[in-house]
Amino acid sequence: xxxxxxxxxxxxxxxxxxxxxxxxxxxxxxxxxxxxxxxxxxxxxxxxxxxxxxxxxxxxxxxxxxxxxxxxxxxxxxxxxxxxxxxxxxxxxxxxxxxxxxxxxxxxxxxxxxxxxxxxxxxxxxxxxxxxxxxxxxxxxxxxxxxxxxxxxxxxxxxxxxxxxxxxxxxxxxxxxxxxxxxxxxxxxxxxxxxxxxxxxxxxxxxxxxxxxxxxxxxxxxxxxxxxxxxxxxxxxxxxxxxxxxxxxxxxxxxxxxxxxxxxxxxxxxxxxxxxxxxxxxxxxxxxxxxxxxxxxxxxxxxxxxxxxxxxxxxxxxxxxxxxxxxxxxxxxxxxxxxxxxxxxxxxxxxxxxxxxxxxxxxxxxxxxxxxxxxxxxxxxxxxxxxxxxxxxxxxxxxxxxxxxxxxxxxxxxxxxxxxxxxxxxxxxxxxxxxxxxxxxxxxxxxxxxxxxxxxxxxxxxxxxxxxxxxxxxxxxxxxxxxxxxxxx
Length: 489
Hints:
By secondary structure, the chain is of the alpha/beta class. α4 runs antiparallel to α5 (about 360-375), α5 runs antiparallel to α6 and α7 (about 400-420) crosses α8. Keywords: Membrane, Transmembrane, Transmembrane helix. This is Oxidoreductase.
């Protein structure tokens, strides 16, 4: 902390006079300057709160010269600057403050690492030319960065790793050139970035691994991010909401929510994300998405959800939207967007969601497609067996095909035995010859119609009979399985 000046200017005396009364001192008309050392001396001195209960530093329209340094000090009064210009950084690192308001101010940087603020911190509508350093800072109330302009391209526009905010972090209309670093931050309320513009095209627009938000994370209302959005292994108590949002990070992560847990996720972007979207390991109760803006590259391995609800929004709207119609073919295309190829879990998860919604037919269609995708990854013996299973019973999900195959085998067997009838085993005791009943007796296992034992196929018809017996066992088993599943439902 710098030594206080030996003498005060008229403006500084005016500030000191208003300090104990807690009055707002407006120097904007005079365009006066105040030395930071004089303010630091004022803030670091003990104040008799019983004698001066309203004591506060409230200053408007001043130019503060020199670095305002109250690092590690105990500042027992509220601090509020409005429309002020600082020609050097403000340093409150490790300080203990009541609250800190820098509204519509201009300053090169704010250093507040390890500070403790019992109330609110506001940099609303302020312009910060360097890093806004809030690493390991504790804010008891809200942190307001609405309409602020943070300018540190290629670096941390907001360095807030391990930040603790008891209330909400508001960034409505925030403009940030550089990274918002929120790794390990804990926000008791909401993280609100509606209308924010984040620009860091060569790196991370948001780096927020292990972020913890008690309420909602909202990035809508025209939110735009040019750079990676990394929210890896985060915990969001409410919604993660991207509605009317534009995100781009070509060849990198437009959005990475791997391992994140949230109540719900809204992926209703303004335009399709330009870059890869990763939801691997994401756990949500409800996933809302807009089929018009599905990402071209989407990772869903390990993503779990109970409900999958498509919604569409009007341009610029931030309302609940309208239910959209997405059929199972479109959802299968949604699954195929993985740049890493086939994985079974996304298909099983989608089928589970369909079952939960009572759409068993769609669930079976998804599981059938899963087997077909898997078949494409196998060597030729597996693919050959797969094609056979698909044609006969649809991998067990189209068992009605088995009934058609049984009917076809019965007709072909009847025709074959009409042309080449078998010999009677005991002509005196044999029933009247009936090729249809003989073919049916061969096809139906266990059931004995009395014709298979009475007639004996010879020559080439032996192969026909053997084929009917084998097909009967295979196809009848599939039909019984289908009926059992139907009765269970």
